[in-house]
Amino acid sequence: MKIRLVQFTGILAIGSASTEATLAGLETFRKEVEPILAKRCFGCHGPEKQKGKIRLDQLDPDLMKGKSAETWHDALNMLNRGEMPPEDEAQPTVEERRKLVGWLTKELRKAAKARRDTGGQAVIRRLNRAEYQYTMTDLLGFEMDYSGDLPSDARSLEGFKNNGASLGMTALQVENYLKTARK
């Protein structure tokens, strides 16, 4: 009972810390970043004009849960390369640029970490047929059809056969691995 209570309290603390970090990032955005964007960027990427089909005023500043992280990442790259704002436009001050780059970098890192997090669970994936064939040949030192009895691999949305999300393990696959091992 005590262990479960401690685990539950730990989960609540982690969730609370994550929410507080997100709220702090959004508060920083509203107070420090959004005014700079309104002053330096919304003229070309706002409600009036949308150069490059980009509206910075409509991007979700919640990079953890929002769907705009990739566009924010592109904006950070353009800032870092000096491509935005263009040379013929008013440039942000050193302090404004520091705030923009700092906020974007921090929030993108938090979002990337959150997306990589598995919640403490180990993600297990199997080898696809080709990987299994090469591995067994390397391990045992002789050619044989090791993957012939295995079911064909599903393709991911991107068309790859080695995407971890599509390489789960089924009972049929375990059975076929054992069958191949007995040969």
From TrEMBL:
One of the record's GO molecular function terms: heme binding
One Pfam family named in its UniProt record: PSCyt1
Alphabetical UniProt keywords: Heme, Iron, Metal-binding
Residues covered by the Cytochrome c domain: 20-108
Protein name: Cytochrome c domain-containing protein
Organism: marine metagenome
